[in-house]
Fold this sequence. Notes:
This protein has about 230 residues and is of the alpha/beta class. The N terminus and C terminus are likely disordered. It has two domains: about 140 residues, Rossmann fold (3-Layer(aba) Sandwich); about 55 residues, Arc Repressor Mutant, subunit A, CATH 1.10.10. The protein is elongated, with a radius of gyration of 20 Å.
Amino acid sequence: MTRSDGGSSAGATTILIVDDHALVREGLRWVLEVHADLDVVDEAGDSATAVAKAASERPDVVLLDVEIPGDDPVVTVRRIREVSPDSAVVILSMYDSPDLLRRLIAAGVRAYLLKSVGREELVAAIRKARDGSGSVLLSVSGQSLVQVQNAESAILSHVELEILQLAAEAMTNAQIARRLDLTEATVKSHLRRIFAKLGAVSRIDAVNKAVAASLVTLPHDRLVPRPRRPPF
């Protein structure tokens, strides 16, 4: 199903909807196209069709359900990004899964939203995803990741994840700098941003929160102590 009026509005955000239920696709189209700046250019019901249409349409945003027939969702995201690198992938999911979330973030999605989100939050996420900022928008439970203000989360960049993983392995700033070919000052700067994004007060606190969100893993021979709670 394609747009019935014959084409996209000039300057509108073009969207490819991917879901295996026609009724869901129709509902999403209705929700989105009441906004003049959003234009659904095509639909797909499986991963292979999604990749093919992403390649032909080059949409600004691919709105992707994770339970479509075909490839694993992470594979689908990677293939979409290969054929249409400028397309922002926004995930819609029934699953509040930290592991799936982590894998999809690593694959390059720009937003991960549970299907329980409201229409205003969905529209805002699509607009934000197209803007091209470095952050990933999330609307999931507190168990899946650390939440920040306004139900958005400033997810760690690839370099920040590397630094935090090495910190979890008890490396010093100097050791991390040597491993990643960075200056020690750059490592410290990244750590400050990591603390701010996770709402952490120390390296241990940051590592604990990242482990809880499945963003990093601890070596089997190392346990990170929890921060002491103040006495009552």
